[in-house]
Amino acid sequence: MNMHQEVYTVQELAELLHIGRNAAYDLVKSGNIRSIRIGKSIRIPRSALEKFLNS
C-alpha cells in the first residue's frame, strides 16, 4: 500500500487510519469520507482522504 496512490480500497483506508474494516465502512457509509462506487467496488480518492485528515 502506498500513501501516494490516487484511490484506496476500504481495507487500505482502514490500514492507513489504523481502524477496523467495519469502522472504515462506517466512515464511507456516513459520508464522512467521500467515496466512488465502481460496480460493487468502493474506492476512496486520495483527495477525499486528505480532506478528512485535514478536517
From TrEMBL:
<feature type="domain" description="Helix-turn-helix">
    <location>
        <begin position="7"/>
        <end position="54"/>
    </location>
</feature>
<dbReference type="Pfam" id="PF12728">
    <property type="entry name" value="HTH_17"/>
</dbReference>
<protein>
    <submittedName>
        <fullName>Helix-turn-helix domain-containing protein</fullName>
    </submittedName>
</protein>
<dbReference type="InterPro" id="IPR041657">
    <property type="entry name" value="HTH_17"/>
</dbReference>
<dbReference type="InterPro" id="IPR010093">
    <property type="entry name" value="SinI_DNA-bd"/>
</dbReference>
